[in-house]
Amino acid sequence: MLQIQSGQMIGPCTVQGFLGRGAFAQVHAASDPAGRPVALKVGDDSGGGRFLPRFGEVTLTRDPRAVSPDETPAEALFLDPSSGARAEILDSHEVDELLVSEAGILAAVDVPGVPRLLDVVHQDGRPVLVMEQVEGVTLRQRIRSMEGVKLGWLLEACRTLEDLYAAGWICHGDLKPENILVGPDERIHLIDPVPESCRADRIVTTPWYNPFLRWDTKGDAQAVAIILYELMAGGLPFEVVPYPMAGVTSTQLTDEQRDLELSMYLSYPRMRDLNALAPRQIESLFHRAMCDASYGLPELRADLEDFLMRH
Q: The dihedral of CA 193, 159, 280, 264: what is its sign?
């Protein structure tokens, strides 16, 4: 891991402090030569969510050595055609590949709602992304602090995703409360998109929000639906992830075996059993996002718009 300290120069930028971390990288506040705030994204020596150290308690403290235990860092998952998915750890070279690929998809669009990529510099031979610094807190922090969460923020996230698809993005790939920033003006920014894997047998994502290990718009829609479930029910629908059959070739099991496995996996607690006040329309939205192949992000966004207009 690059040793980053306040006052240090990274390319032309001066480090100001630590902002946060995920499974594969850390983000630091900095200023450019003109004194404007920027964010520097730096890769770890290795990465993978379950290999991260954790704080001993839920805390708002930002520390480059750990993440809070209520956060859900991404995983690198190896897709075995016989036995399904298993977590693996990425080395520094693979982490740097992720960063360079992320820079490519950020540079390809100029859409409000995602931080702009300003530059890619190198420090000790490793890439560092220089990005627009977005003021705000993550949706995870808002949930944790009990300050209140607005469903309109998720609607804005859906609209931003559709703008990004129209501009050329295939999908975000890792939507979760940690990757949705809520600004002081309550504008939404989506951070940390996951590029397409350079290996057909690997996906990088957070399986609690992408249990079928999809890298497409349907996976984004399911992630939004799972966040809605979490907000309504106070917890995630699936205790064990990823879905055991994700990545298994159809030749390894019969359609009957796959259907049985899927039906057992989707036996999640009903939203209204956990929260009697949960709206039926939101419960239906979640069910359709998880179970109806034809129900994608446009349909979810339209249903969420309809619900918010009626309420």
A: negative
With respect to residue 3, please indicate whether it lies within any of the assigned structural domains.
no
The pLDDT of residue 230: 96
Give yes or no for residue 199 having a pLDDT over 90.
Answer: no
Residue 4 lies in a domain: no
Quote the distance between the C-alpha of residue 63 and its chain's center: 20
158, 300 Cβ separation under 8 angstroms: yes
What's the confidence (pLDDT) of residue 254? Answer: 75
Supply 244's token pair. 């055991």
Structural domain span for residue 250 = 9-310
pLDDT at 161: 98
How many structural domains are present in the chain? 1
pLDDT at 116 over 90: yes
Phi, psi angles (nearest 5°) of residue 254: -80, 165
Q: How confident is the model at residue 260 (pLDDT cuts 50, 70, 90)?
A: confident
Please report, for residues 24, 63, 189, the alpha-carbon distance to residue 19 in angstroms, rounded to integers and kept in the order given: 14, 8, 16
pTM for the model stands at 0.94
Q: What CATH number does residue 164 fall under?
A: 1.10.510.10
Of 277 and 262, the structure prediction assigns the larger pLDDT to 277
Contact 190, 180 (CB under 8 A): yes
Report if residue 96 sits inside a domain. Answer: yes
Q: Say if CB 204 and CB 75 are below 8 A apart.
A: yes
Q: How far is CA 32 from CA 12, 20, 127, 190, 205, in A?
A: 6, 19, 17, 23, 31
Does residue 211 lie in a domain region? yes
